[in-house]
Design a protein that fits this description.
By secondary structure, this protein is an alpha/beta fold. It folds into two domains: 41-92, Multidrug-efflux Transporter Regulator, Chain: A, Domain 2 (Orthogonal Bundle), CATH 1.10.1660; 112-388, 3-Layer(aba) Sandwich (Rossmann fold), CATH 3.40.50.300. It has 15 helices and ten strands. The longest helix is centred in the last third of the chain and has 25 residues, at 364-388. The protein is globular, with a radius of gyration of 22 Å. The model has no long low-confidence stretch (mean pLDDT 92). The structure holds adenosine-5'-triphosphate (ATP) and magnesium ion.
Length: 391
Amino acid sequence: MTQDVYINERVRASAASLQSALEAHMRTVFAPDARKTLRPFSAGEVADLLGISTSFLRKLHFDGKLPEVETSAGGRRQYTAADITAIRHALESTAKTPGTYLPGRRDGDRVQALAFLNFKGGSGKTTSTVHTAQRFALKGYRVLCVDVDPQASLTTLFGFQPEVDFYDSGSVYDALRYEDPVPLSAVIQKTFFTGIDLAPGGLMLQEFEHETPRALIDNIQPPFFSRMAAVLEEVEADYDVILFDCPPQLGYLTMSALCAATSVVITIVPNMLDVASMAQFLQMSADLLDVVADAGAEMKFDFMRFLINRYEPADGPQQQVVSFLRTLFPDDVMISTLLKSTAISDAGLTQQTLYEVERAQFNRQTYDRAVASLNAVNDELEALMQQAWRR
Ligand SMILES: Nc1ncnc2c1ncn2[C@@H]1O[C@H](COP(=O)(O)OP(=O)(O)OP(=O)(O)O)[C@@H](O)[C@H]1O
Ligand SMILES: [Mg+2]
């Protein structure tokens, strides 16, 4: 005897058990009704971020030139991210070259808006977005993350529960929607990570995909491709950098972010299937960009780069794919690659980044290699951004 399977009921039942299991998981990860907090940083880490030596940092404290910070039980100085910002301001006021400690944009520089995209799921868009945001914030930039993905993984990584916190309101959708949009400032959240604000994602963003065809027929202004840029205008003076985490599809949301972007990073996993799918992605993007450019969108990018992610340098076939890409796009493939690392995926299991976790929780060598690779990628992006500002 066979049992009838009603797919809708099965799906609903699975959804319910998954939801409650996830909530339980979140409670253990961030117990009890927890919001995330950021760990303190050591003197070594701070000196590194400031680009000075630890002995110079110690001397600055000794000379009373810096705001004092807490010390650990072992008597070592511990710096919060807010302490690092305060130190940047203190040092910048006496720096010989402006921008040494506060490297963000100056009068006349346009805000850098960097979109991480690829329609390949799991290529590392969210991972790159969050690590870049955090590294930039620690380097003294004022960062706004915009979660353009209805899946809202980026929002989750900042310790929110989009399916609860932004279930029917509070996401970027509220600002993008065609009917009664709110100013973006009404949805922007401060995050636990000093220097990063978040315009949250959430399932409601999917509505933008559904509503846009109708809005185009009704000629509602601004059209989808300029809506993101339009809502950002209100807040962009508050930031040096805006980072978009795009969904794995080339829909209206992605196009809207792309048209608001000043630069693009396409994350790519080096295997032939992914490269083939990226070729399709590029072709489709080019066609769509032609259409929106004809419709009047301004598309002047400062840079476009391919970021190789999940790279395993010892893997022969991967190496071949990477050199194939580098030969094909000598100027466009980022020099630094993001290594495949269990440290990155393990940190991800507890919704953390490698900049949040303590080194002691990991195998040292694994952690150091992964952090070095992340830093190299982010520092290369920082240099590109500085170049765009002609520095
Ligand atoms: N370099 C890496 N090493 C190990 N794991 C990684 C690496 N990059 C990403 N991951 C893991 O792979 C998974 C997918 O990454 P991520 O969510 O960043 O991809 P995505 O492109 O944003 O996916 P989606 O298209 O679904 O939005 C995550 O679990 C992440 O922790
Ligand atoms: Mg993602």
